[in-house]
């Protein structure tokens, strides 16, 4: 491929003997990857080739997945570059933690983080660009996570709500994208000699806001998809100088992973603890990852001081009619873990929003909690996301259909039944090959279509 002359000049100097194989790697075939989603109880029940697992993630595989497959539609699988999937592993989210993914769309890292949190704790997935934030929300819905808020703020906008709040923050920063040149040749057109420095200036602003939202004792994971030292090692040097209480946590290197390069910055040997994923050594695209820990003792911080304050702000109460409609639905589906104190109505929408989460009413959001459904003239219509978050193995009110009927439904058509289900008319969780794929409403011998129009496939 044609790389910009100044790019070649720069990396010839930086990489010396290695430069030739580095440049050759831009002409090699990219290898694809995917992750399975342990939020689904039977997550290994997928018609996919699982013979090539990666060694750095228990849920990652080499291979490709069709966006039109049942596995993809039901959120059992997420296509993700083999390098990108190491970021979530390095973060190592734990159930119960409060985590921020600050630059999150389209959701590769966020879906990975949420899939490892067992629906416990809170993940705030933020994206500054509204169009991209909408795609992010769709992807988070698909994986069936119940503990995610999707916001659409610039990093400074989040500060008013989340000062010193998070246990872990992932900053997968907007960057010069050199590591994506192989996959996306057009990306070379935006590149110019000063681009990495321009990106670095923006990265510092984003990180300065991120640092204000990190709890004392918290962990920051910084990643880019570029090889540029200005945006990689030099940013880490800047962080270490600016925030002397931060320490680099050495990241484990698996086969083909490079160390960070001290010579690309101020010579600090600790930079070796970072990871460089270089296409001439590793099978994924180009990436850089660093992990830093705030070493100050976990003490009184702002969010604790505010403890006495009512966290929810104005929480719209449900009307008695809404309570009854929801409770009837929840009883029919034997839903557990949805206590009324954790439910919130906004407009006609009903959300699961844990009482312990802070008031986000001052933020621009796409999903202010997990959308359970919508109240419509004396009835409750469950959300598509709720269907994907339910465990079909535990649900009695379900209807299993063949693959052809799944195809019809996700294309926007009704399903015809040979006989009426024993439980009569009404809402059913639809499943195919033991995977919940939507709610459908049975009226006699027809399953009416409620598949979201914008997500139709085929
Ligand atoms: C590398 S992409 C994120 C990819 C994502 N983490 C994933 O795994 O799917 C960087 C994101 O940062 C967003 N961004 C751009 N400028 C930003 C800014 N000033 N502050 C925060 N995010 C920004 C972009 O819109 C883009 O979605």
UniProtKB/TrEMBL annotation:
GO MF terms, alphabetically ordered: RNA binding; RNA methyltransferase activity
- Which residues does the Swiss-Prot or TrEMBL record annotate as the active site? 225
Pfam families in UniProt: Methyltr_RsmB-F (PF01189), Methyltr_RsmF_N (PF17125), Methyltranf_PUA (PF13636), RsmF_methylt_CI (PF17126)
Q: Which GO terms describe its biological process?
A: RNA methylation
Provide this UniProt record's keywords sorted from A to Z. Cytoplasm, Methyltransferase, RNA-binding, S-adenosyl-L-methionine, Transferase
Q: Which residues bind S-adenosyl-L-methionine?
A: 103-109, 127, 154, 172
SAM-dependent MTase RsmB/NOP-type domain location = 1-295
| Classification via CDD domains | AdoMet_MTases, RsmF_methylt_CTD1
Superkingdom of origin: Bacteria
Which residues belong to the signal peptide in this entry? none
Family as reported in the entry's similarity comment: Belongs to the class I-like SAM-binding methyltransferase superfamily. RsmB/NOP family.
The name of this protein is 23S rRNA m(5)C methyltransferase
Source organism: Ligilactobacillus ruminis (strain ATCC 27782 / RF3) (Lactobacillus ruminis)
* Organism ancestry: Bacteria, Bacillati, Bacillota, Bacilli, Lactobacillales
